[in-house]
Specification:
alpha/beta
Length: 337
């Protein structure tokens, strides 16, 4: 059985009870790399419908979007997401070949610090936790105090891609390895009604066993990749082209090494998420349909945000009705007590 890390006691007021007539709403935002932009759309739709989560728990990109939401910076994050192009995405990739991650991540950290420098989680108006994994022990780590930016960085530190983060003497990386959609965190913090957002159902959620693999037709675009060995030393454009292939795929549709790592991690995350959700099911689940979006398609935020809005709107009436019903029952029980 997985041991929950003793950093759980860093979560402020986690054991505080709530009244029977108080149906606090928890929102569990799952990981999913670029697909996590759809969380912005989900939050927009919930807000427009007058549904305001009391407790937010996020993993990986869910921690980034959720953290910005509770800090009042969702508008800034949305503007940033919509402004991204492929060129800008590559500009944030500060490679660190000598370190413990392919990307150092300082440029992304600086972007977050520009809006959230000095913000401590315990000072936020809503309860918030970012989930990370401790290297070595595999402990599930709940970051509910301290620097908001550091908690986000630890939660999205994808193994092999981003360098892990040292917090309180512990090296931490992506929380999706232990709790991809942190429903259990919301419940532990006092949520009586939990909404889960899973952005990976279309990615590999229908994975099954293939006993005999049929050959697929060749891709339409079979343009062979250019030779870059000698060009790398002559100019920077060839390097940019190489990096683009590694992160966005090659001309012959062959995945680059970064995509291979991300896809492998995503499959593991999907299997863990299905197991966790089966053992601790949410009260409602929002699953944006994102079949055509890759894990590195950060430059396609407009469409993914809209997918999040559409998915949330499908569930809003059910959520409203269920929360209202629970609050009514709680109020009647409180009166009769």
């Amino acid at each position: 059985m997985r041991r929950i890390d003793n950093l759980r006691n860093r979560v402020c007021d986690a054991s505080t009870g709530i009244g029977m007539n108080d149906c606090k709403i928890g929102l569990a935002l799952g990981g999913g790399s670029a697909r996590g932009w759809s969380h912005i759309g989900v939050l927009r739709a919930l807000t427009d419908a007058g549904i305001y989560p009391d407790i937010i728990a996020g993993t990986s990109m869910g921690a980034v979007v959720g953290g910005c939401y509770v800090a009042g910076e969702l508008d800034a994050l949305e503007d940033f997401a919509r402004s991204l192009t492929r060129r800008k995405v590559l500009g944030f990739l500060d490679f660190n070949l000598a370190g413990s991650g392919l990307i150092h991540g300082q440029r992304l950290s600086d972007t977050l610090e520009a809006r959230l420098k000095g913000v401590a989680i315990e000072t936020l108006d809503k309860k918030f936790v970012a989930v990370a994994t401790e290297i070595g022990t595999g402990n599930e780590t709940w970051l509910g105090r301290g620097s908001l930016v550091e908690a986000m960085r630890a939660s999205y530190a994808l193994p092999g891609i981003f360098k892990p983060l040292l917090i309180d003497g512990r090296w931490l990386f992506d929380g999706a390895l232990v709790n991809p959609i942190p429903v259990s965190v919301c419940r532990a913090l006092g949520a009586r009604y939990v909404i889960a957002v899973n952005v990976n159902t279309d990615a590999c959620g229908r994975g099954t066993v293939v006993s005999h693999m049929e050959a697929l037709p060749p891709p339409i675009d079979m343009t062979p990749p250019e030779e870059t060995g000698g060009a790398l030393a002559r100019n920077g454009r060839a390097m940019k082209k190489l990096l683009q292939r590694q992160f966005f795929g090659r001309d012959d549709n062959a995945p680059g090494i970064s995509r291979v790592m991300m896809e492998a991690f995503n499959i593991v995350q999907d299997r863990i998420a299905r197991s966790r959700l089966a053992g601790d099911p949410p009260d409602a689940i929002i699953a944006p349909k994102l079949p055509s979006f890759g894990l590195f398609d950060f430059h396609r935020a407009d469409a993914m945000i809209q997918c999040g809005i559409t998915a949330a709107k499908r569930e809003i009436e059910d959520i409203r009705r269920e929360v209202a019903s629970r609050r009514m029952v709680g109020s009647l029980l409180a009166r009769s007590a």
